Every structure is written in C-alpha cells, then in structure tokens.
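Worked example (supplementary).
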Amino acid sequence: MSSFFSYLINGISLGSIYAIIALGYTMVYGIAKMLNFAHGDVIMVGSYMAFLAMGSLGLPPVVAVLLAVVVCTILGITIEKIAYKPLRKAPSLAVLITAIGVSYFLQNTALLVFGANTKMFTSVIKLPPVILGDGGVNISGETQVAIVVCIIIMIVLTTFIKKTKAGQAMLAVSEDKGAAELMGVNVNGTISLTFAIGSALAAIAGVLLCSAYPTLSPYTGSMPGIKAFVAAVFGGIGSIPGAFIGGILLGIIENMSKAYISSQLSDAIVFTVLIIVLLVKPTGILGKKINEKV
Amino acid sequence: MAMLSVNNLQVHYGMIQAIKDVSFDVNEGEVIALIGANGAGKTTILHTISGLLQPTRGNVMFEGKDITKIPAHKIVSLGMAHVPEGRRVFAQLSVLENLKLGAYTRKDKTEMEETLKMIYQRFPRLEERKNQVAGTLSGGEQQMLAMGRALMSHPKIILMDEPSMGLSPIFVEEVFKIIRDISAEGTTVLLVEQNAKKALTIADRAYVLETGNIILQGDAKKLMNDESVKKAYLGE
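After joint prediction of all chains, the assembly is encoded as:
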C-alpha cells in the first residue's frame, strides 16, 4: 500500500512537469493555431542555461533558474518572430514542418555548443525528503517542489487570463483574430506574449525535470516534449485546465505502468491510453466546442 | 472636409480585383448607406477602411489623416469602430467580457463604466445576460452585443456590416431603430446592407455598388425613387 502511494505521488510529480510543458503547447495552439514542436527543445536550452549558470558561473540556483527563464523567453519570442511569423498566412503543414526544423536546429546547435556528452545536472532543490508511514513513503524534495510549482503556475496563469486585459486579449485572439484586431488588440503582440509565457514555463519545467532526472543532453527535451504534447491532446488541446489534467493523468499512468506492468512498455501504454481517449472523445477530456448561433 | 474619405480605392484578393476604383465621402453626423448585391465588394471596402485589408491603390483618410497603412488595432483608438458581418462575438466569453474587450483601447476605467451603463440602458437584455456565455445568445441578441461592443470604444464613426442579416423581422426593426438612435446621439454611421429599402429609409446619402464600382450615388430619398434602384434593389 505504501509503495502504491509512493508511485502515485511520483506519478503526480512527473505529471506536474508534463503539465507545465503542456501549457506551452496548449496556449500556443489555442492562440496561434499551430503545434510548436520545437517547444521540447526550449526545455533543453533552459536546462543547459541553468546547468552552465550553476556550474561554470557558480551562480546560486535561484539566479540560475531566473537566467534560464529569461534566456528561454527571449528564445521563444525570437523563434516566433523569425520562423513562424512569416508563415502566419501559410498552410498549417508548412508551419508544422518549420517547427520540426526549428526543433532539429536547436538540438544540433546544442550538440555543437555543448557537445554530445551527457552532463550530470545538480539538482537545484535542497529540500529534505518527507518520510511518511514509518519510512515506507519517501517523497523527495524534487517531487514536492514540482507539484507545488505546477499548482502555483496553474493558479497564476488562470488568474492572469481571467482577470487581466492581456489575458482577455489572448482569449479573444484564440477565438477570432480579425474580431480581436477590431477591438484594438495587437494580435502579433499577443502571439509573442504567448510564446514568451510558454517558453518561460518550458525553462522552469526543464530545471524541474533535470533536477528529478539528472542527466542532460541535447536530446533531453525531445521525449518529455512529445509526452507533454500527448498530455495536451489528452486533456483537450487549447484548454489550460485540460493541459493540467492531461499532464497529471499521463504522469500517473506512466509511473503506474512502470511499477506494475513493465517499464519497457510504459510509453506504449501511455500512447495506447491516448488513442483510446481520442477514439471515445476526439476533442480530449476537456476539449469542447460551443457552436455559435448564426 | 469630410470625416472619412475613401479615394480611388482598389483592392485585390490575389489575382482577383474586388474593388476597381471606389471613392466616397462620409461627413460628420451623417448616416451613409453602401448598398449592393452579394459580391459587390461592400464588406471588402469596410475591411479596407478599418485596416484588416490593405488596398493595392488609393487611400483612406480619417479626420484629415491618412490611415491606409495604419494597422487595424491602432485605428480603433482613433475613434473608429467596426461591427463585422456575422457579428463575430467571442462565443466562449461572457457578455460582459465581450463588452469589456470592446473598450480594450480605453484607459480611463470610470469613463468606461459610464459607457457600460449607457449600453446597458440601450440594451437591457445585455445587462440581464451579462454573465451568460455569448455563444448561447440568440442571433438578435448577438447582434445587440456586437453593436454594444463596438460602442464601448466610444467611437466617432461606426462601420456596420449587414447588421440585419439573418434576423427575425422584429429584430430587424430593432436594429434599425438603434442605428437611428446612435446617429441621433452624434455618432457618424457607415452602413452596409443588403436590405436596401431599410437602409435607404434611415440613411442621409447612399452609394450603390456593383462589382467593385460605385454606379450610383446621392440623396437616400432620391435613390429610393430612382427607377433602376427600385428595380434592382428594392424589388418593386
């Protein structure tokens, strides 16, 4: 029983990281109507930044995380400006292929700059583990922080979108770019802001991920990126609570499969569950479409 | 000087020329109707004025300023609002959130609250349903919301694209009554309508558009009695 509880908590924690990454996918999809497959690699860049800041520059962890966030925010805005903005009116397939291209570009640049060797990432988290049930359940500091950070991000982001003008503008742009423009909303600015938020979150997710699973290579972001994309689709792409629920569920399913079925098959199980969900509810768990009366 | 003047406008969609050579003026306080059949280019003209489309030639002057190259989101704060065809309310947002987005460019919160109060007075239905999601409103209510949303920016001129389209006769009456009220309060109106008869009844002057050209213009009452207009657009 206590091991089940451990798996569950660790699953929720992994899921929290997926959820933070999935937010980037889902927000960009909701607003720019594109799948930014380079999102996973922004995570990798963020992790390298934190790694270098702590290792080579000897900065304290908090500053290193901030630096990673700033670099990724700028990177996200730059990618959007250079690679995606010129394709605003292009067919979605062209944008998708460009995103894959950006993904490879980031991976290969990282190979060139940081080398192919796997680096050992020192955890930024110094919290002691919480031990429950006579030592049966050991919740590491990384696990605790990932869950708390995810909850904070969800609350802040939901409040931002519901209560601020910029948040409302994002919702307006996601529904109807032309009508939003007629309200005076700067659509390009709003898309930039979305990429900035998504990339900042990717940096945070990267640091959390590498703190919990401390290996770092130019391909570190790619699998979590795909999993988070699955989480976003799972929860209903475009929906922020959907990304949260999708991420958490995915983390739990993955960890439980590893624990009770087979660690080799865990990814296959995750994707099977996705296929089943999409067969039953093609829009994902929280995805819905309100039909407008005309 | 005219408040809004459109000069030698030409607009293309790729290779296709939608607007061939259109010029017209709107003076302050007027209600101007642009009438014409489907595909004549009425919506294209409005989109070009409000900056959603770029003309290939010609310009749009608003209060003496060339706004042709100004992006749509900056034109709103100059005092121009646009009620788009098919209403295009934000279906997943509440009525109140839609109205607030209409005031997106306004800074003064108390002034905005005043405008909101006035809009609720004019459209009591919107106040009753302020927390309802806009997508669940009826077509007529959505049109009221689209108009209220445009008025939230406190515009000097309001462009309306087919406001009566697809509405029940009662709502059609209501819409035209509101346009008359808006005009009576001093807002200039540029109205695009397929319902030529109704449009000419409330307009001061009108322009008749046919396949990208203005073929007739003048006093709305006179146009109403023009034989060719009667035949082509009024169904008499």
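Two points are worth noting when inspecting this output. The domain at 4-234 of chain B is CATH 3.40.50.300 (Rossmann fold). The two ends of chain B are 36 Å apart (CA to CA).
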